[in-house]
Structure formats: structure tokens, C-alpha cells
Specification:
Belongs to the AB hydrolase superfamily. Hydrolase RutD family. Helices cover 46% and strands 15% of the residues. By secondary structure, it is α/β, with parallel strands linked by helices.
Length: 265
């Protein structure tokens, strides 16, 4: 898989691994890099079958397979310990790694993630699936912003979104890949294993997220043994993009707390 290392070059530098959502591209995290690269070594990557990691995703693809692929990548790069940050689907990958290789994770940050299916998100993904199958990639890409961002942000960033849509359409990974990735996230269910995940966890959720109810993050906070929830009023499903300063501040405070819990309290 295509990956990039940014920031501090030392192998023993504190390391962050950033894992994107359904789109899968490491470029999703571009707004975070300037805030991180002075103090951390940061790995971003394009997930299998997305971006610069072309592949035909098999039927029955799963979040467990995505976690295994990332573990293999980190082993190859020589990363034995890291802080993990995952958005939506990427958060599911983090939870799966916490079950499969807990010693890899110093902490995890899960952004608008979940531990089992819910009817609202299932309805949203059904709509997106029908758009892709019945109307094609252009309609799917155009609708994406409606699920990711608040209406006010969309209205204020129309030119940027037009460029983003054109790029996404030009690099569209193919209908089968997208549908199989959606199938993987819809099938994810680890409810009966949450109590065994002891990784220190920060949950970030947004009340105005129209794709994943913020209560799914509250559910995780209530059931994970070592978890804390930061609940934001604004930002939609992708506040790392739509409210970058707030998101970066919360992320940096979490990382400082992991370094020195006493001074970061």
C-alpha cells in the first residue's frame, strides 16, 4: 500500500498513524499535518483499493482484513508502537487492531466511529449505495459532501468542493471496491468484545453529524474501560476538515495527556 512518513525522521520519535474513513485516502489528513509534524513522526496511507493503492477488493472484504493489512504495513515500516487516529471506518480499523494487536497501540482517537450497526447510518449508506448503482459515480461523489459537512460550511466552500469532487471523480476506485468497503463497515459488530479493549481512547463526536449519530460515540465511551468523549456541537461528520483548529487542538491535548497525564489534566 502507498504510504508517506511526515515529520520527525528518528525511528524512536513518537509516532502517529492516521487512518481515513470510507474514501480511504491519506490526503484526508492534510489539514492535521502542520500541527503534528514538528513533534511527531506521522504515517498516512492509502487503504487497499483506494488512491495510490490500486487493487481489486475481494467479495466478503472486512474491517478485520483492513486491520490486518495495516498491521502488515506497520511491521514492514518498523513501527512497533504508535498513537492511532481513525475517522469513521478508520476508527473501526483502530478498534479491530486493539483486539488483534493491542500492544501496538499507545492510544487511539476514534472520530465519529461505532461498534455495531445502527438503523440511521444503515439508511444513509443504503441511499449512497443506490446512488452509486443507479446514478453512477458522479452522483455518488456529488452527494458525499452532504453526508460529511455542515450546510453552512458547504455553502461557504463551494469552489473548494467543486475541485474536491473533480479530483474524487477522476480517481474513483470503482463501484465494486466502494460497495465492498461499505459492506465491510455495515457488517462490523464487536459489541461483545468492547470490555476487553483497554487501549486509552479519546472519542470525538459531533452533534450535527448526519451520517453517524453522536450517541454511538457515547455508547463507546460508556463501554470501553479507558475512554473519554469530546462532544462538539458543530463540524458534521468530518470536523477535522470543517473545523480544523478545534479538531487539532483536541488531538494535541490528547497526545499531551498521554505524555504527561499530570500536567495535561
Amino acid at each position: 500500500m502507498h504510504y508517506e512518513l511526515h515529520g520527525r525522521p528518528e525511528p524512536d520519535a513518537p509516532t502517529l498513524v492516521l487512518c481515513s474513513g470510507l474514501g480511504g485516502a491519506g490526503a484526508f489528513w492534510t489539514p492535521q499535518l502542520p500541527a503534528l509534524i514538528d513533534d511527531y513522526r506521522v504515517l498516512v496511507y492509502d487503504q487497499r483499493g483506494t488512491g495510490k493503492s490500486p487493487a481489486q477488493i475481494p467479495e466478503g472484504y472486512s474491517i478485520e482484513a483492513m486491520a490486518r493489512e495495516l498491521i502488515e504495513l506497520l511491521d514492514a515500516v518498523g513501527i512497533a508502537r504508535c498513537h492511532f487516529v481513525g475517522h469513521a471506518l478508520g476508527g473501526l480499523v483502530g478498534l479491530q487492531i486493539a483486539l488483534m494487536r493491542p500492544q501496538l497501540l499507545q492510544s487511539q482517537v476514534l472520530v465519529n466511529a461505532w461498534s455495531s450497526p445502527n438503523p440511521h447510518s444503515a439508511r444513509c449508506f443504503a441511499v449512497r449505495t443506490h446512488l452509486l448503482r443507479d446514478s453512477g459515480p458522479a452522483a455518488f461523489v456529488q452527494a458525499q459532501a452532504l453526508f460529511l459537512y455542515p450546510p453552512t460550511w458547504i455553502a461557504e466552500n463551494s469552489e473548494r468542493l467543486a475541485r474536491d469532487d473533480a479530483h474524487a471523480l477522476a480517481h474513483f476506485p470503482g463501484q465494486d471496491n466502494v460497495l465492498r468497503r461499505i459492506g465491510a463497515l455495515l457488517a462490523f459488530d464487536i459489541e461483545d468484545r468492547l470490555a476487553s479493549i483497554t487501549t486509552p481512547t479519546l472519542l470525538i463526536a459531533n452533534r450535527d453529524d448526519m451520517l453517524v449519530p453522536w450517541t454511538r460515540s457515547q455508547h463507546l465511551a460508556d463501554r470501553l474501560p479507558d475512554a473519554r468523549l469530546e462532544l462538539l456541537d458543530h463540524g458534521g461528520h468530518a470536523s477535522s476538515v470543517s473545523d480544523t483548529p478545534t479538531f487539532n487542538r483536541i488531538l494535541l491535548e490528547h497526545l499531551a495527556r498521554q505524555r504527561d497525564p499530570a500536567t495535561a489534566a
